[in-house]
Design goal:
There is one protein chain. The chain is α+β, with helices and mostly antiparallel strands and 432 residues long. It has helices spanning 2-10, 40-46, 75-81, 86-92, 105-108, 110-113, 126-146, 157-164, 169-192, 199-212, 275-294, 301-319, 326-331, 420-431, and strands spanning 17-21, 27-29, 32-33, 54-57, 66-70, 98-101, 118-120, 152-154, 216-218, 223-226, 247-252, 254-256, 259-260, 263-268, 358-359, 362-363, 371-374, 377-380, 394-397, 400-404, 409-411. It has a six-stranded mixed β-sheet with strand order 6-5-4-1-7-8, with helices on both faces. A three-stranded antiparallel β-sheet has the order 9-12-13. A three-stranded antiparallel β-sheet has the order 10-11-14. The protein starts with a helix and ends with a helix.
């Protein structure tokens, strides 16, 4: 997979050389670090998970087109920090044409960049940034006499955004597995949730299921929002006790081998929707089902976004949340009081995956291999004015992961119940 990605990436460099840095460990406090996760673009090209590493792609070099600078084996440090792949391992196990200690980057890199006029590099690593800029400045002083060497830094982020939006077979396999594990966790949460539990109890259950699966972990901090907390889009406190008539909104996804699922389900804590909850939930559900049906090759995400806004605005009018003409309400963006986000986002190495879905006013059409979330919602804040008080504090979002196929789409998360009858049935398995 990674070699395939490198080959595709190299073709875009047009004679340039790319330098991609591994993620820098983040310090939590003193000498304690946050859990390390590799830079997604670096992993996309290399599959290598260690920090303090640099990848160089030099398509026109006569001997080495894929070069890695990594931490060498060091028994003393490995006692503290764990095993390292080392120089031999980066060549034998990861396919590098050449491997060097990270300490030799400054010494070795001129051999790979001295005959190109451009370096592809993202300025996001302070010390390395200065080193790369220094190469450019140094070369500019001699370029007038030598006539060769780099004089430009170009950010390759757009290349990655364009490439990563369409997944190859192995990537789809990993996302599919991530959604399977995510489904297991959401089903477990529906079955165990009951009034008087605390949000964090259910969040802990969900994330434990992710950790128990091989090569998996939470893709992001679980949103476990009960009652009016569900009207907060990115609620992560997860510290409230669940009340009897609360709806529970869970937005959570598993990461499997760096690829992510991202699912939201909303269900009643006591196993039965109230009439008002049913009305709002059904509005969101019918909208979501229609939006999913639109996803197919040739359609743009803009078209789906616009349909979501119209469909939900019509629903708000029917519910009595808004009054007036649909077109005027949309023009004035009145719907944003209760629906304030887009219909979804691309999914992959990152939960909110990089993607080029538009070029100015021109929107890219869906292609087979794209994976996106479809997640309309309605959120009636507890402090909303001139609203039927029965609606106050109700938040509903329904989110599925959808793969674009040649003939239309495949809902990767269809195994997680979302109709009212299905949800009440699953919830009742624990309420009896």
């Amino acid at each position: 997979m990674h070699k395939q990605n490198r080959d595709r990436f190299a073709k875009r460099l047009n004679g340039g050389v790319a330098i991609i840095s591994a993620a820098v460990p983040a310090i939590r406090t003193h000498n304690m670090e946050y859990t390390y996760r590799q830079n997604s673009n670096f992993y996309y090209l290399t599959g290598f998970e260690e920090p303090n590493s640099i990848c160089v792609i030099a398509p026109n070099h006569p001997e080495h087109q894929f070069i890695m600078f990594v931490q060498p084996r060091d028994r003393d440090r490995e006692i503290w920090d764990g095993k390292r792949v080392g120089i031999d391992g980066i060549i034998e196990d990861f396919g590098a044409d050449a491997g060097f200690p990270i300490s030799e980057f400054g010494e070795k890199i001129p051999d790979y960049i001295n005959k190109t006029d451009r370096i592809y590099y993202t300025l996001d690593n302070g010390p390395l940034d200065q080193q790369i800029i220094g190469f450019i400045q140094q070369n500019r002083q001699t370029r007038s006499t030598k006539g060769i060497g780099p004089n430009t830094i170009i950010d390759p982020s757009e290349f990655f955004a364009d490439m990563r939006v369409v997944k190859i077979e192995e990537e789809i396999h990993r996302i599919r597995r991530a959604t399977e594990i995510t489904a297991d966790a959401h089903l477990a949460a529906m079955r165990v949730t009951r009034p008087e539990m605390y949000e964090y109890e259910i969040a802990a259950l969900i994330e434990s299921i992710y950790h128990q699966a091989e090569q998996s972990c939470p893709g992001y901090k679980t949103i476990l929002a009960s009652g009016q907390n569900a009207t907060i889009l990115h609620y992560v406190d997860n510290n409230q006790q669940i009340k009897n008539n609360d709806l529970v909104l869970i937005d959570s996804g598993c990461e499997y081998k760096y690829y992510n699922g991202d699912v939201t389900r909303t269900f009643p804590a006591n196993g039965k929707f109230t009439d008002v909850q049913r009305q709002i939930y059904q509005t969101v559900l019918e909208t979501q089902v229609e939006l999913i049906s639109m996803i197919k090759p040739g359609v743009t995400i803009d078209k789906v976004n616009k349909r979501a806004i119209r469909r939900l605005t019509e629903g708000m009018i029917k519910l009595g949340l808004l009054k007036g003409d649909t077109d005027e309400l949309i023009k004035d963006k009145k719907y944003q009081q209760f629906y304030m986000h887009n219909v979804g986002h691309m999914l992959g190495l990152d939960v909110h995956d990089v993607s080029r879905t538009a070029d100015g006013d021109e929107y890219r059409t869906f292609e087979p291999g794209m994976v996106m979330t479809v997640e309309p919602g309605l959120y009636v804040g507890a402090d909303s004015k001139n609203i039927d008080p029965r609606y106050l504090g109700i938040g509903v979002r329904i989110e599925d992961n959808v793969l674009v196929t040649e003939l239309g789409n495949e809902v990767l998360t269809e195994g997680i119940p979302k109709t009212i009858d299905e949800i009440e049935q699953v919830c009742s398995e624990n309420q009896a």
